[in-house]
Amino acid sequence: MKVWKDYQEQHKDRFLNELLELLRIPSISARSEHKDDMIRCAEAVKQRLLEAGADTVTIYPTEGHPVVYGEKIIDPSKPTVLVYGHYDVQPADPLELWNSGPFEPVIKDGKIFARGSCDDKGQFYMHVKALETMTKTNTLPGNVKFIIEGEEEVGSPNLATFVKANKELLKADVILISDTSMLSMDTPSIDIGVRGLSYIEVEVTGPNRDLHSGVYGGAVANPITMLAKMIASCHDENNHITIPGFYDDVIESTPAEREKMAQAPFNEEEYKADLGVQHLWGEKGYTTNERTGIRPTLEVNGIWGGYTGEGAKTVLPSKAFAKISCRLIPNQSSV
Ligand SMILES: [Zn+2]
What we know:
By secondary structure, this protein is α+β, with helices and mostly antiparallel strands.
């Protein structure tokens, strides 16, 4: 134990600085203007894996952003761990809500504030440094493979194709993913599954052009109002989702499973305080952990239309839009 602790202690400043470097790359997978940043970030990940002692690292192009694959095979007869992570991040807006630049990391109270610091650059980097530490101190007990993709935040559209085409390459005894949440800051947690995702964009069209609300207002249905009504009607008074057939294939958790969940440490007051809310909201009949763990959900991720610029414009818009996502649980399918 001591050997790697010593190594970690000796090199921790460099470890930190390298992570900050990685956080400075605006690898926003959803925005096409960051395509070059994505490639730059993939190359940085490759470099770091090589420096950490990986035997080979390859950047595999995909239809979208590239996948970085690296490995350190010390003995094929020994067990292999496959580490999964992603180097892409979510868009950083709304920018005005940031106290410091999303890609200019700052350290406050022992925490790094930057886009991607805890999703997922910080986590996969920890594994890269673990590889380095074990390689450099001759304490690596098995084989390690890394797959660090660049499209997690946009639903990994090309990952399945890559995995299917590279089954032998990715073969492992254990897959290690540090891209989930903890029950609390001091409760390390092992997730055994995560909910799936279905993502849709809705476009509501009313009149064939934008209209003046002084001339047409009151006589024509406003697409924004209609969309708002549609969205509001997606949950009933018990916050149950009203879409026909939505729950048809759901496999309900057993009472024994729910009892186990209830034993997990969870402080609702702390949870509320952390979020700055007085009350929690959710599907009637389920606890907070059940709502976020074993129940399917529907959330509006964005809504727009009409005029949102400075000042006033009395438009009755032709169109309204929303992005909506559903978290899905076992046996549910998005198609
Ligand atoms: Zn993530």
